[in-house]
Design goal:
Blueprint lengths: L3 H4 L11 E3 L4 E4 L5 E3 L3 E8 L6 E6 L8 E2 L2 E3 L6 H13 L3 E16 L2 E14 L11 E7 L12 H13 L1
Parallel strand pairs: 4-9
Antiparallel strand pairs: 1-2, 2-3, 4-7, 5-6, 5-10, 8-9
């Protein structure tokens, strides 16, 4: 019971309980006529490869999917460009400085947080970094590891979108 129609019961504008789900992607308040759409939130993921051709993967430090493998990245802040968000997130999580980036692919995902499904569109960027000298886990990751793309255990990867992004990268190389 994490889908928006199962969680949202009252109009966020007037508080009325007469907030009707249309069955696809929006709610409409029968009292104040407020129309609320369920849209995808934007998130970014960085594909960073070392000189040995190994992909940098992180371990999630918090729910959802605590302890599982993930790509470094996170949510795009309001009014922030996806590229700027990628630079910010990689600095926050790993203390790395991105020097180049190239868009690779995007995939939809369902991110369940606090008992609520947030639909996301995850944008993947292939990134080069200045160096790995001062890299350390911080923010919402507990650790990191470099793994050859063909050796990644997809049962240990946190979400379908990250699996899809890694597979898209594997087709490129």
């Amino acid at each position: 019971m994490t889908q928006p129609q199962e969680v949202i019961k009252y109009c966020p504008k007037c508080g009325s309980g007469d907030f009707i789900y249309d069955g696809s992607k929006s709610f409409k308040c029968q009292t104040c006529q407020f129309h609320f759409f369920i849209n995808s939130a934007c998130a970014v993921a960085a594909l960073i490869v070392n000189d040995n051709g190994e992909l940098l993967l992180t371990r999630r430090a918090c729910e959802p999917n605590i302890g599982m493998l993930d790509l470094p990245g996170g949510f795009v802040d309001p009014m922030e460009r996806a590229e700027q968000s990628t630079i910010r997130e990689i600095k926050e999580e790993l203390n790395l400085e991105i020097t180049e980036m190239q868009f690779i692919a995007s995939y939809p995902n369902e991110y369940v947080f606090s008992g609520y499904t947030v639909f996301t569109i995850d944008l993947a960027f292939l990134c080069k970094v200045k160096n790995f000298d001062n890299m350390h886990a911080q923010d919402d990751i507990s650790g990191f590891e470099f793994i050859k793309p063909d050796d990644i255990d997809f049962n240990d990867v946190s979400s379908s979108s990250i699996k899809n992004i890694i597979n898209a990268y594997k087709k490129l190389i």
